[in-house]
Amino acid sequence: MGYGDVVQDVLIANSDGRLADDHRTRTRFAVTVVASRDGVIQTGYDVGGTSGGHELFDAQPPEELARTAAGRAITLLDARPAPSGEIPVVLWRGSGGVLFHEACGHGLEGDFIVRDSSVYAGRRGERIGSPLVNGVDDATVQNGWGSFAFDDEGTPASRTVLFEEGVLTSYLTDRRSAHRLAATGTGNGRRESYAYLPVPRMTNTFILPGDGDPDEAIADLPRGVLCKQLGGGQVNETTGEFVFGMTEAYVIENGEVAYPIRGANLVGNGPDALRDIDLVCSDLALRPGTCGKDGQMVPAGVGTPTIRIARITVGGTG
Q1: What is the pLDDT of residues 116-168, one digit of tens each?
Q2: What is the tens place of the pLDDT at every residue in 100-110?
Q3: I want to staple 318 with a disulfide (CB 3.0 to 4.6 A). Which of 81, 112, 149, 197 is the partner?
Q4: Inter-residue contact 218 to 90 (CB < 8 Å)
Q5: Residue of 204, 169, 213 whose CA lies nearest to 308
């Protein structure tokens, strides 16, 4: 188990006469469970977090987090080698948030756009994703893990629409990149502490819920993969290409969840993955995360409802 909390009193005063202050409290609780059987060892993990205090434990009781983590570890003991190939993948509520954050969100940050080192540079107003995709970065989410009143340059928190019906509508900027892009600042200038320079960073970044049924996402598939938790991964912002490990995943056969798998990777391209989303459900879930960039770590909320990508490459050994 791991528990952490932090209280910050932030004061921003700059040479333009801007003066802002913010009081930030964040609480986080994580559980890791190890299960073993006949020499096979597997690990399960779950985490809860809030911009607040111990009310976290009312919304996300530690015993529920522990039960979920233990269930994942025990399930993996019976997991089979993952299949490989291009197949439909269902990302369960919350699990697709890491993918949207890494494969899409970072490429929309203003410093990458200014340097023309993002696959999304120069594409504002273009339909990139499926018409089902509506995505936002929102620092105003109540008790959101990445929420605040002002960013670290004193710009008020805001909700920025990134994709509207698949069309790229905005980038995420600090004051410097907003000036360079001749754009209105979005309040995304963030830094780990006063010892660092602010850079464009995400806050709470997620795909908005649609009207799909999560059960339909699975029932319609003769074969596919259900991913309930994504692990770490790598993304190339210039090309949009990514690879993520799946830490809890299952094979779907004839519209039903058949058996758990291990050693599965999700391999693809950010714009292509957005384009190939063919179902967005109504069950949005947000999760806490920690985002690293330029040697700085900041809290960032991630989330999606259950979404289905019609075709994407799964890398496995089966």
Answers
A1: 999 999 999 999 999 999 999 999 999 999 999 999 999 999 999 999 999 99
A2: 998 899 999 99
A3: 81
A4: yes
A5: 213
* Domain definitions of the chain by residue range: 1-78, 80-315
The span from the CA of 162 to the CA of 154, in Å, is: 22
Adjacent-strand bridge partners of 259? 251
Q: Which long-range contacts (CB under 8 A, 24 or more apart) does 14-23 make?
A: 14/153, 14/154, 18/153, 18/154, 19/154, 20/149, 20/150, 20/154, 20/156, 21/150, 22/148, 22/149, 22/150
For 177-233, the three-class secondary structure string (H helix, E strand, C coil) is: HHHHCCCCCCCCEECCCCCCCCEECCCEEEECCCCECHHHHHHCCCEEEEEEEEEEE
- pLDDT for 317: 77
Tokens of 70: 């233990």
Distance of alpha carbon 112 from its chain centroid, rounded?
19
> What kind and span of H or E run contains 111?
helix 110-114
Task: For residue 179, report the phi and psi dihedrals to the nearest 5 degrees.
Answer: -65, -45
Q: Name residue, tokens 């384009």.
A: 275
What are the pLDDT digits (tens) for 63-115?
999 999 999 999 999 999 999 999 999 999 999 999 999 889 999 999 999 99
DSSP letters spanning 258-314: EEEEESEEEEEEHHHHHHTEEEEBS--EEEEEEEEETTEEEEEEEEE--EEEEEEEE
Residue 103 tokens, joined: 């494969």
pLDDT exceeds 70 at position 220:
yes
